[in-house]
Specification:
Length: 462
Amino acid sequence: MTFSFCDESYAQPKKNKSITTPAPAEKPTTRILFVFDASYSMFGQWQSGMKMDIAKRMLGEFVDSLKSYDHLEIAFRAYGHQHSLRPQRDCKDTKLEVPFSADLRGNITAIKRKLGDIVPRGTTPIAYTLEQCGDDFPSAGSSNVRNIIILITDGIEECDGDPCAVSLMLQKKGIILKPFVIGVGLDESFKNAFGCIGKFYDASNEESFKNILNIVISQALNNTTAQVNLLDQIGKPSETDVNMTFYDETSGVIKYDFMHTMNNKGLPDTLIIDPIGTYRLVVHTIPPVEKRDITLVAGKHNVIAVDAPQGDLNLKVAYNNYKALKCIVRKRGEMKTLNVQDFTQTERYLVGKYDLEILTLPRITLDNVDISQSKTTTIEIPQAGMAVITKPSEGPGSLYLEEKNKLTWVCNMLNSGLQENIVLQPGNYRAEWRSKNSKESIYTVERRFKVESGATVTVKLY
């Protein structure tokens, strides 16, 4: 039994020109829930005046600037504003004051009016408030929306809740994206407590508070671009034509699916990706490649580099008299099946060593097959032969390959029928058979025969 290997370099395949271009996806609706700290500590002085007065004024001016945005809905929730600290603090003091509505201008007016009415009174139940936020976002028509929380606070949790756990739970359920947290004149010792809730910004003064609001809205509403560089072994982004999936790192939800493409300049194509949150990227090479904890810089063009050097495996047979010959491909030394490749196909794999199991009779196993960068590894197996088995009656039987005074099972014959055609690789074989009417082993019929490439041999079991 012989087979051959061949390595040949190949040029990068040309891209197929598509006849039609699919319409771009509809722009998602962004829902922003402003969560406002109206606890008693907001009476404190900050820069030019009281924290509450400055925060109310700046947030009012900010929401007023959102009138011209499309595909935007806003809502407003406050906490610590309904009950005073005495005689006992109320750890459920939170209320959705302005719910979401498609009437953006109407909600802007309502939020500004509500800001004017709020007076700081109570405690800081951040965890409970975030938990209630989960029900503030409409569930109807939510297939193409981005739910965002902007939390504005001057203090940490005061009610023994766990804001970090609540935020993570909402993200894992896919209810919200990673929240933005804006700290207003926070004590230095409090700042580390907010990193686990969401993306934290420290407003150390009035001007920075105003700038941070603009930065946050830019991340929430403006496009961010990225390209994925699939690198070959010398670090060039030459690999392409493979699907890529972006998952939300926290929730595991599929966010984007793209077929990697080179643009008309020969560079990886530009993608528009939401900068909020962290991604896990799976490049569906064989085997797949994964890159975790991908964060994007909002408003910038981001480059995501992934090592994905590939080569081709070409499977050939001198003359294919198999109906559908297949080959199991595994990574070297591993049992997990990576692919079942047809013998008429050329398939691309990551550079490395592979074990092949070709589903001929008998099986052909080839270990340590090398796939090299930008080359085609060709494996050719001998042309098969045909054994025509004829029997005088029905009964059990099996075929064995005979090599070096050892019999290796190849296959069982059919119990029914009087003739069977079996495609076999070249070699020396034995057939063992007994009529179903014979009840003693001494009536076993044995026949030795040889199969040659492209030839047919008749094996008579009588």
